[in-house]
Specification:
about 350 residues; Rossmann fold; two-stranded antiparallel sheet; 12 helices; globular
Length: about 350
């Protein structure tokens, strides 16, 4: 377990299991519809803990892909038992949300900002001064961005940020360093890796920077050629470039979470998964530690025996070990988030 500016033993961060602070009465569930952009209405659910007046609330953001609301049910159950409300929503174009699904970070951030603005108007049922944001992977960079954004009208700042398996580093370099590590691990020769990375940089600079169509097409062909020269088949190379061209991937190239994290004044809990094959621990953890070094209440932790979505490693009936469960279903991860948020939001011990 790693904490910003110091190393803490795993047991000190987790501690003893926490008993629910409130009776297991079902929460009050409110179906919500929130206007984001023209033609986009986000459908979701606000859950309120029983017997708590104006509780704090955690805005829960899903990761990349067709993420619906309610994908962290075990974490929500724990937070509600503590006395913390939860809010989550279907991504645009998914579930009951309208609009066209487009899996780019800037789009997801605008929708998350709309839900945050709506929560700040709900002083009738929650405490707008105690709103936290939790995001995983793609949305792990959105929480910090919301924390430093200036709202359209005066509003209390975000009270806490939890980022799970979140990229951390500088714009462009973060993406390319991770790609370079994955290619090297796959066995590609260093010279070939360098050629692929250089071609990818030129292509994504034009693709995400509004380059002329001809330049974008030339750059795309250059990446294909670099992969083929490295020993990949033409089909494999085309598949790789198709992935790079997808908005969910190319938008990551434009993200510079390190610069954003350096501006965050709210408490931050950044968790990384030891078994993550998507986000590199070797690259992300030092970057997060560096970016958060001036934040007096920032903790960066590496959780053992979990994968990218914080599903635990479990033994199956035939004796093999597999990662299984809902996203954020690892008991130790849930305990840590529950304790940390409870303290920052002023709920429970």
């Amino acid at each position: 377990m790693i904490a910003a500016r110091r190393l803490l033993p795993f047991a000190l961060l987790i501690g003893a299991p926490v008993a629910p602070l409130f009776a297991q009465t079902p929460p009050t569930k409110e179906a919500v519809r929130i206007a984001s952009e023209p033609g986009v209405t986000l459908a979701g659910e606000l859950q309120l803990p029983p017997g708590v007046q104006h509780p704090p609330v955690v805005l829960l953001l899903g990761g990349a892909g067709e993420s619906p609301h309610g994908i962290y049910p075990l974490l929500e159950q724990r937070l509600l038992a503590r006395g913390i409300a939860t809010c989550s929503f279907d991504k645009r174009g998914m579930g009951k949300s309208t609009g066209t699904f487009f899996d780019a970070i800037d789009v997801a951030q605008r929708d998350a900002a709309a839900v945050l603005a709506w929560l700040r108007t709900r002083g009738d049922v929650i405490d707008p001064a105690r709103i936290a944001v939790l995001g995983m992977s793609q949305s792990g960079v959105i929480g910090p961005a919301l924390a430093v954004a200036t709202p359209r009208v005066a509003a209390p700042p975000i009270a806490a940020v939890v980022m799970l398996s979140a990229p951390a580093g500088e714009r462009g370099k973060l993406f390319l360093d991770s790609m370079q590590e994955q290619l090297a691990t796959s066995g590609m020769k260093p010279v070939a890796v360098s050629d692929v990375i250089d071609a990818t940089r030129r292509y994504l600079d034009d693709l995400t920077g509004g380059g002329a169509p001809g330049l974008v097409a030339t750059g795309r062909a250059g990446v294909v050629d670099a992969f083929v020269a490295a020993g990949w088949t033409a089909a494999q190379a085309e598949g790789a470039v198709k992935t790079l061209s997808d908005p969910a991937t190319s938008s990551l190239y434009t993200v510079g979470p390190g610069a954003v994290l350096r501006q965050v004044k709210a408490p931050v809990l950044a968790l990384y998964a030891a078994g993550d094959t998507v986000i590199s621990n070797r690259l992300a953890i030092p970057s997060a530690l560096g970016a958060l070094s001036d934040n007096p209440d920032a903790t960066v932790a590496r959780m053992p025996k979990v994968e990218h979505a914080f599903k635990p490693l479990m033994m199956t009936g035939d004796g093999t070990a597999e990662y299984r469960g809902w996203p954020i279903s690892d008991p130790d991860t849930i305990d840590l988030i529950d304790r940390w948020l409870g303290k920052r939001l002023g709920v429970g011990a």
